[in-house]
């Protein structure tokens, strides 16, 4: 199926989204190829999360068209529940079901939506728990897990539905710094296994190492996109440069708000030493 | 002599205890216990009320209460979902219903159901006879109250829960039933228990439907015995019977809350 599909995994054409008078997305054209890992970066309020949430129609676009795996999401008659089965989503706040054990978090949709039997659902759930390194937490309740463990369980929950595409909405933003690595490791492994991924993130090192393409958004538009070495290493646009310098060097606030009046052009951001360029 | 702060506080507390004890002492010594016992605590009357008060009256009180609660819970959940619906007419109907039935005395509603439905549908009977009439009659009012409680419970479940369920491919209905409502009910257990306790006492309104010896409940049983014996003892026994139900109920709820706290 993947070999003969003519359309990309995600295709977005002239997407607009407004919340009341506030226009958050101002005409986005965007694609994610099959097996591609795309990281979307940008300042808060740039519309990157809204863009991600439009892909599986958690937000209803105001105008424009979206196709996922060849199905038009923006068709008013789209069978939304069946399309969403193929799209996994990982949230910033995990959103595990607190009244269910970890195992049941992973089996409930398999059983109710995919109509898998209990034994099969549990086998698949345990396989995915193993994938994220949580084999021993199957019978725990979410509240008994750390944030990092909860997020990995949430990833495993999505994977249990055999999605063709995974959406990540700032998956590590709510985590304590020392727990971020475990989640990113799981995501990196997923990318290496060939999963199609669209990741909204502030983890620049992850974007640089794992992404096939980095998309920088600001003010509701895609400002620039390309391979991570270009967008992160040698950004062409001023807005990208100033964003990166703020993210990578947060204590340096001299140019904040008035980067154009700075006597010297802002330095291209310095990324931490990169030994994984061929990834 | 100047007292230190702790001494002052201790002295004040002792004065409060003394005043409290004095009031109780006055009540105890001033009351005419002999006449009180004669009017409210005749052992022979208490004995005569057993076992009927348990086997018939208390049993019926429990049945009526549970019937009304079950009806109110199901209907109240439907109303709560209607109030939260995207379909505007559903919201209007639910809001109108809730406002109307919260404003009407339960007695009146019970009366209208008990006598109005048989007149409106002479060919049909309310299933369950008196039990059915009471379950529906009291349940209609209880549903209005419970609907608001359940709606608040549903709204207390974070939006992300519904989103997570929907992104897994669940329909809105399945997500509500398996993810949102189970969590909402954990939140509303205490207020719903309150409703259950209120219903236990409202079940005493059954008398307006004209109960028989078989369908009599605690309050009516107490009043009938009072009329028979011209003595108030049965009311005391009836009151005690209600406490036998409501006190353990509070205990059960405390247990449930503890158990659910783990999974929150």
UniProtKB/TrEMBL annotation, chain B:
Which residue range or ranges hold the ABC transmembrane type-1 domain?
58-253
Q: Which residue spans traverse the membrane?
A: 12-31, 62-82, 103-121, 127-147, 232-253
Q: Known InterPro entries for this protein?
A: AA_ABC_transptr_permease_3TM (IPR010065), ArtM/GltK/GlnP/TcyL/YhdX-like (IPR043429), MetI-like (IPR000515), MetI-like_sf (IPR035906)
Q: In terms of one coarse class, where is the protein primarily found?
A: membrane
Q: Which PROSITE patterns match?
A: ABC_TM1
List the keywords (alphabetical).
Amino-acid transport, Cell membrane, Membrane, Transmembrane, Transmembrane helix, Transport
Compartment(s) of residence: Cell membrane
- Top-rank lineage group of the source organism: Bacteria
Stored Pfam families? BPD_transp_1
Keyword Transmembrane helix belongs to the record: yes
**Record membrane topology:** Multi-pass membrane protein
Q: Which NCBIfam families match?
A: HEQRo_perm_3TM
Q: Which family does it belong to?
A: Belongs to the binding-protein-dependent transport system permease family.
The name this protein carries in UniProt is ABC transmembrane type-1 domain-containing protein
UniProt lineage = Bacteria, Bacillati, Actinomycetota, Actinomycetes, Micromonosporales
């Amino acid at each position: 199926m993947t070999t003969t599909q003519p359309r990309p995994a995600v295709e977005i054409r002239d997407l607009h989204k407004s919340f009341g008078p506030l226009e958050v997305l101002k005409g986005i054209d965007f694609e994610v190829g099959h097996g591609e890992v795309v990281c979307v970066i940008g300042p808060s309020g740039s519309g990157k999360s809204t863009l991600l949430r439009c892909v599986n129609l958690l937000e209803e676009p105001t105008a424009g068209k979206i196709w996922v795996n060849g199905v038009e999401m923006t068709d008013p008659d789209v069978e939304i529940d069946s399309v969403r089965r193929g799209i996994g989503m990982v949230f910033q706040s995990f959103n595990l079901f607190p009244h269910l054990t970890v195992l049941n978090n992973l089996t409930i949709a398999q059983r109710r939506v995919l109509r898998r039997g209990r034994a099969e659902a549990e086998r698949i759930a345990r396989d995915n728990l193993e994938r994220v390194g949580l084999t021993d937490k199957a019978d725990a309740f979410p509240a008994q897990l750390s944030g990092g463990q909860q997020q990995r369980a949430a990833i495993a929950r999505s994977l249990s539905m055999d999605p063709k595409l995974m959406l990540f909405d700032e998956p590590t933003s709510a985590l304590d710094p020392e727990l971020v690595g475990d989640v990113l490791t799981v995501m990196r492994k997923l990318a290496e296994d060939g999963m199609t991924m669209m990741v909204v993130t502030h983890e620049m090192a992850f974007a640089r190492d794992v992404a096939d393409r980095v998309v920088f958004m600001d003010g509701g538009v895609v400002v620039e996109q390309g391979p991570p070495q270009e967008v992160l290493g040698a950004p062409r646009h001023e807005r990208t440069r100033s964003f990166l310098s703020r993210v990578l060097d947060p204590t340096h606030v001299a140019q904040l708000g008035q980067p154009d009046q700075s006597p010297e052009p802002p330095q291209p951001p310095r990324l931490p030493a990169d030994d994984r360029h061929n990834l | 002599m100047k007292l230190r702060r702790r001494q002052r506080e201790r002295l004040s507390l002792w004065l409060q205890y003394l005043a409290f004890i004095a009031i109780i002492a006055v009540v105890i010594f001033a009351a005419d216990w002999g006449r009180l016992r004669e009017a409210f605590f005749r052992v022979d009357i208490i004995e005569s009320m057993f076992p009927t008060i348990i086997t018939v009256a208390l049993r019926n009180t429990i049945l009526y209460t549970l019937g009304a609660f079950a009806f109110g819970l199901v209907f109240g959940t439907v109303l709560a979902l209607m109030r939260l619906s995207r379909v505007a007419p559903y919201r209007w109907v639910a809001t109108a219903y809730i406002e109307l039935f919260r404003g009407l005395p339960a007695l009146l509603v019970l009366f209208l159901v008990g006598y109005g439905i048989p007149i409106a549908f002479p060919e049909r009977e309310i299933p369950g006879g008196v039990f059915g009439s009471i379950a529906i009659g009291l349940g209609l009012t209880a549903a209005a109250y419970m609907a608001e409680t359940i709606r608040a419970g549903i709204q207390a479940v974070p939006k992300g829960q519904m989103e997570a369920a929907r992104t897994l491919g669940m329909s809105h209905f399945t997500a509500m039933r398996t993810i949102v409502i189970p969590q909402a009910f954990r939140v509303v257990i205490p207020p719903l228990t309150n409703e259950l306790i209120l219903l236990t006492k409202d079940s005493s309104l059954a008398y307006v439907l004209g109960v028989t010896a078989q369908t009599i409940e605690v309050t009516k049983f107490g009043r009938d015995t009072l009329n028979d014996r011209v003595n108030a003892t049965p009311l005391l026994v009836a009151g005690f019977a209600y406490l036998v139900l409501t006190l353990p109920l509070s205990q059960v709820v405390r247990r449930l809350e503890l158990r659910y706290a783990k999974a929150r």
